Amino acid sequence: MSSVKWIENKLNAPEYRPVTASDARAALEFWRGAPFYAPSPLVRLPGAARELGLGALALKDEGRRFGPGSFKLLGAGCAMARAMLGEGPLSWEAASNPPRSLRFYTATDGNHGRAVAYLARLLGQRA
Fold first, then answer.
1. Which residues on adjacent β-strands are paired with residue 58?
2. Beta strand residue intervals within 1-127, DSSP E
3. Under a CB-based contact definition with an 8 Å cutoff, are residues 127 and 104 in contact?
4. Of 6, 48, 65, 74, which is least surrounded by CB within 10 A?
């Protein structure tokens, strides 16, 4: 008797659509509209650069990213705004005053889960 049970996800998207440059620009503009947005700082690592034989080395510090301190907030925020606004343009202002309210669920209490909860509060939604 097998202890493995196959379960098919009947709710998955029929096909994968890769992220485009246009998607990336829309996400950047969405976050630039947030009143608390600031680019992540770059931390220069001259010692590591010398050791590796590089002219320069920098680390993008996502540890101070908004509230939860995680880059996970970026993708979660765009996905949540898209769910609230549909296929139209993404903007922080529109997401802050969406045409409908939603309750957001996530299957983790890790960085992604904390990001979803944090953003839901900021956008006046439930999580």
1. 44
2. 42-44, 58-60
3. yes
4. 6
Query: Which residues is 44 bridged to in the sheet?
Result: 58
- pTM of the predicted model as reported, rounded to 2 decimal places: 0.72
Handedness of CA 60, 66, 71, 74 (dihedral sign): negative
The secondary structure of 77-104 as a DSSP string is: HHHHHHHHHTTS---HHHHHS-SS--B-
How many other C-beta atoms can be found within 10 angstroms of the C-beta atom of residue 123?
A: 20
- The single residue of 10, 60, 61, 72 carrying the catalytic annotation is 72
3-state secondary structure of 26: helix
Query: Residue type for 32, please?
Result: R
5 is catalytic: no
Active-site residue, from 5, 10, 61, 109: 109
- Give the start-to-end residue ranges of the domains of the chain: 21-122
pLDDT digits (tens, 9 = 90+) for 67-82: 767 778 888 999 999 8
* Span 29-85, pLDDT tens digits: 999 999 888 888 899 999 999 999 999 999 998 877 777 677 788 889 999 998 888
